[in-house]
Fold this protein.
Amino acid sequence: MIKTTILRGKKPRLKNPVLIEGLPGVGHVGKLVAEHMVEELGAKKIMEIYSPHFPPQVIVEDDGTIRLVRNELFAYKSKGKHDLLILVGDHQSATNEGHYELCGVFLDIAEEFKVERIYALGGYGVGQLVETESVMGAANNIKLVKELKKYGVEFKANEPAGGIVGASGLILGLGELRGIDAACLMGVTSGYLVDPKSAQAVLKVLCKVLEIDVDMAALEERAAEMEKIVAKLREMEQGQMPPTTDEDLRYIG
Amino acid sequence: MIKTTILRGKKPRLKNPVLIEGLPGVGHVGKLVAEHMVEELGAKKIMEIYSPHFPPQVIVEDDGTIRLVRNELFAYKSKGKHDLLILVGDHQSATNEGHYELCGVFLDIAEEFKVERIYALGGYGVGQLVETESVMGAANNIKLVKELKKYGVEFKANEPAGGIVGASGLILGLGELRGIDAACLMGVTSGYLVDPKSAQAVLKVLCKVLEIDVDMAALEERAAEMEKIVAKLREMEQGQMPPTTDEDLRYIG
Amino acid sequence: MIKTTILRGKKPRLKNPVLIEGLPGVGHVGKLVAEHMVEELGAKKIMEIYSPHFPPQVIVEDDGTIRLVRNELFAYKSKGKHDLLILVGDHQSATNEGHYELCGVFLDIAEEFKVERIYALGGYGVGQLVETESVMGAANNIKLVKELKKYGVEFKANEPAGGIVGASGLILGLGELRGIDAACLMGVTSGYLVDPKSAQAVLKVLCKVLEIDVDMAALEERAAEMEKIVAKLREMEQGQMPPTTDEDLRYIG
Amino acid sequence: MIKTTILRGKKPRLKNPVLIEGLPGVGHVGKLVAEHMVEELGAKKIMEIYSPHFPPQVIVEDDGTIRLVRNELFAYKSKGKHDLLILVGDHQSATNEGHYELCGVFLDIAEEFKVERIYALGGYGVGQLVETESVMGAANNIKLVKELKKYGVEFKANEPAGGIVGASGLILGLGELRGIDAACLMGVTSGYLVDPKSAQAVLKVLCKVLEIDVDMAALEERAAEMEKIVAKLREMEQGQMPPTTDEDLRYIG
């Protein structure tokens, strides 16, 4: 395989589709949200994307079978205004140029389905444990910025200071060049831990924006578990407790 | 040379061929098994594979001549059910994309010879000295998993946790996309030492699976030597002995 | 996007144009000069250059919108002898080969506009705080060296000892192969700090060479601010003062 | 520039030409020998080789002009049996694949001139100061090994143990695939210092092999200077003398 390759299922007809990208990144926030949506909505897989820009790696499943690392596209036919395309995956590109190529592929798909808008989901790492849940935004046009502010998304001048790196950033940047509306929703998170609580915050905003309902029980449960871990970490920080060997800590990624 | 290049000898006619891959990796387990088989079975070289994805390096032979680093394919006409193709080599790809390209080349060869199955051999590093010999498996379809379990191959959910990286993994993953049955046999090993004992364990399974006999004396001898080293390492670990300067330790790779 | 891509505005007619390159580099000297010129002269943007050789990154603007990292070309119609093309940008290439490709693109543009000469601006890092302002030069032909010496530009045998790395160097080197006159003007700087004072020194030389006037007030102001910081650093060096937490230090890049 | 590019002067007619490669490497031994030969023999430059696989860098000359890093080919019409082609340069490839591509280019040139043999010159780093001068060899066929042994070149089984990495190795390895005789002559050297004494040892062998005379005065002078430095280093090693600040040490590269 010397080129990015797409395996396609039957192409669905979608109504005013919106593309949601949730590839792995800071705190796995985007990935948690997108995978949760696929699960809860029962979205149907319509594409697998393989690429030499991903690491040369297979993942071993529960039953001992393997599968090549990949990105996947799911489709969900909604009863609301917008059908959804949801992009999830094991990895982002392992190379610089690969990011540009793959995001180009994602935008080709967006154009093929005439998506009205793209939401790129991610985390915004602040380097310390986060008390309150908040969602930072960035968008590739000012109209979108204004619209998202109404939903409580925060926009701060020049933040993140280092820009947005990787697929979420490039989808917005390359999307602008093609005239595709795209916004990034970033759950504020420590950046140290997989953060289902931050994912919940992002999902709440997304549900409001898309006027859909997604059951959050599973995510809440994971968030509650994580809360316990965070509480312990705080204790340890304050009381100089020795690190626990509690099994719960195995979730720390 | 700007492309992967194959030098071909005369193409043999093979009966129900099976491809065995034993490139360098964890504990050099796969390499030890495959090179031992080539040696003991008197397999005949039929291809040399050169690639700009290998390191820019030549190896100096005993007589002062050199040869470019490469992968080699050997053929063995068996009296049993399956003739064998055995892939060995000095290196795996040095780059990400190179892994995808080279494994594509290996699968082209598998298709050219209409191989029935591929066994990718490797080591499974557990980070500590290993007492009992065991062979972990992974496969690109569930039928193969079931079949291999009968031969004592162990399958554990999601292990190796980090997936299988490099040629052995990709051959299974890319093989699946092409509909080629492929399984990985991984000798459990410390990961710190070249491990002929683990290689022996893998070879035993492979001989049963393929219904062939391979003389193991040479491998047993190397394994016995290594056992002595391991015994010394254990002593040192337990008794806090100072590291020996014994010549035997020169084998530690 | 798998290739370097240029978005073009209307092509201006330019009189004896000179190209000025000020991409990010040592002490951001070149970038400071070129961006200051664009600002003060009111130069007009005529091209945006995007490339997979840049980092996969977008920059967040003041209003929450983003833009893909890029290089930009501005044109300025002068009342003097030479119209100007000014090349600025967020990044240089992130890869070796990318530098060669992008500088080839810059020289294609230079040839398209039949530029008479290129000035590549940069910093020359000496590893310690610099008292006096001086500008080092290098050029791709001896006539240019002689001419620039008249303007006080210093040339020292084999300096910088490590050669000139990146866009400024390659524009001269590849320019020579195409027969395009090009010189590098390097403000001597510590290399530790963004250095507007050094930028001022380079701009003064450039104004004399091009026989143009550029208001330096903004640059002087930034230089004055930086002077204060440098003074503090000196004090700290000499008096072993503990590092200050003064807000002014936030400018140190 | 996105491809390796050759600028050619007038092509000379050469008699039984031999190609000598002396690119930078361990102890700069090969480079010292080849550049010394170009100088002393008054060889004439016939090609310049530029490549995006070299670092993106220009070198500043004595007069303030620059030149792009490159490799150069010189031709020398001898009165003896063999005319010479001598390959020197500022750098080897900065990338893996680049090594393969560039050595392919060198071999294209060798074939274009129908060279009878290639001598790739280099250093063999042993990690400690070297008392006696000796030259290690490797070749891409056994006849060459036997021939070179007569000239005192030493061949040891599997040495260098790590193989020969870079241009010298690849020229032999890729040369073998094309049926071009090639040998590597490696001056034994510490690997820590630029080593003109080791270069002298290599040059002596090469002069005998090629039946030519090359004045060695300049190289002897540099070797004598280096000897003084080495003597001091030895003293320091033995007597635990504090490091000298003697100006002679400036040559240590």
